[in-house]
Amino acid sequence: MTSYSVLPAGLTQETFGQAIDAFRHLLGDSQVISDQQRLAPYRKIMLPHDENDHAASAVVLPNSVEQVQGILKICNRFKVPVWPISTGRNFGYGSAAPGERGQVVLDLKRMNRILEVDAQLCTALVEPGVTYKQLQDYLKERDIPLWLSFPAPGPIAGPVGNTLERGEGNTPYGDHFNNACGMEVVLANGEVLRTGTGGLVNSNSWQVFKYGFGPYLDGLFTQSNFGVVTKLGLWLMPAPAGHRTVLVQYDEEQLETAIDTLAPLRIAGHIPNVGVMANATLALTSARSRHEIYQGSGAVPQDIIRAEAKKIGLADWNIIFTLYGSEERIAADYKLVSQAFERSGARVIPDIHDPMQVNELSLDAFRLYNWRGGGGSMWFSPICPARGRDFVEQTRLARSIYEEFGFDYMSAPALSGRALHHVMPLEYNRTDTEETRSAHLCFEKLMDEFAKRGHAVYRTGIGYMDKLADSYGPVKQEVNRAIKRALDPNGIIAPGKSGIRL
Amino acid sequence: MSASSTATAVIRVCRTASRPRPLLLPCLLTLAVIALPAQAQRSAEEVWSDTCTYCHTTGIGPELRGRQLPPAMIQAFARYGVRQMPAFSESEISDAELATLANWISQHPTQANEEKPHAAP
To answer: Which of A25, A293, A336, A446 places its Cα 20 to 30 Å from the Cα of A367?
Structure first.
């Protein structure tokens, strides 16, 4: 009998072996992975956890909705927990690794069909394995003038996974969940739910009208474990006639003014996209690695950061956004926003290039990982009201904690509107045991101190989800648990995801 | 609605005889049956273009071509990831694709005008 070195919690070798046999019967031998060497790619994480704590017992690779239904049936029969992934590119949040040791990864990468693109109403319907590059290639090959909004790992990541994690991109469609319309979800009992108007036979509005009739359910299937999403509708942006990307720079002492100038322009729509803001350290990662400018221990001193940033035209804070449309419209918008920023004391530099704001796939953001080297990276992701005093408070608090543990404070808030997604990478050398431990302690302190002050965190990685869920209070957790019990009474879908268990 | 019927219900026939202006298309562009990149074997150049080129021709990762790197090493780095480099599972790059890719990279001639500085420490 085959012996499995990693088992789902509570399962015996014999029971798990029976489940694996059933998976193989359903999917074919090659689409069930259980030997450790073939499982190794799913163990690679950037978080400061022991990989053994997140080792998958197996991977199953369905290529159809029917196979997903069959997998869940087997899981219910043998009480096997599965951890669904779409492309597994949730870097800095867990990549493709399951939340708990022994869970079976349900890898949906083979379900990679682009099912529909409606060029007239600017929608698409895709499966979980579709990447942004695949979708963009599809549009380009057919001369369909639609743009995508994608996150930093765009070429190798996909819209379903990122949208379900409520990720952001940098175009006017950068709030990805807000621009999703219609889901197909396989429930734990094997039934297939279509949200919105998708339940109607031959519905002709599934990708154009979100709400259907009755409760709006789509949110329940984001950042959750209530079902396995097998199709997602997307709204795509009509390619604009033109675009102009603008850099606005402020010094540290102007930070409060910067946000208070930016926010009304964004809320009023004069800045139409989810632009980004980068502090000097983060911006420097595009051109330098840490060891090139500093060989000491602890955080790089601010005077060095500032001097190095200045050499390549970067300021303490750098806001990048884009104006879209006709030449006349861009000119009018540019006049309005540039005057507002200049009146507040900013430097305004037009006509820069940021690929993610203009539909160009790139992995330029991965230069971030070369800053420290060593493969350690995690995202601390609080929400900040788009008010200067709140943002200054968050930056001061975060910087003090980063530097207490010897890390370089980096800040990259997304200009979401009334709130900023104040995402901060924590870069560390994962090959250094002590530094890895410090990164974990630093991250936990960030979570604690932000929660104490009422700063909500919108997303976190495996190993931190229970802690984050706790900060949202017991009633929310109990409601989540009640939904989980109702929809997944055996708790087979991603137990622990977002802190939700039976 | 069963899953099998839902799968076919969303497939619609597209009338695209000549390439009209896309915004005026009166129909849905649809892929009823398409070659699935993860299932149909891609050439080495296609895998390079789909994935590797974003880091390995831009200075984010080291240039790999023209260095006669051992194919087995290239395969191991891609499959398992090293330091900040992600791992690429077989659902993304199949064993056959990876073997072809590794040989292609290993045997690729040096092209001076494509050399980029190594950014990774």
So the answer is: A446
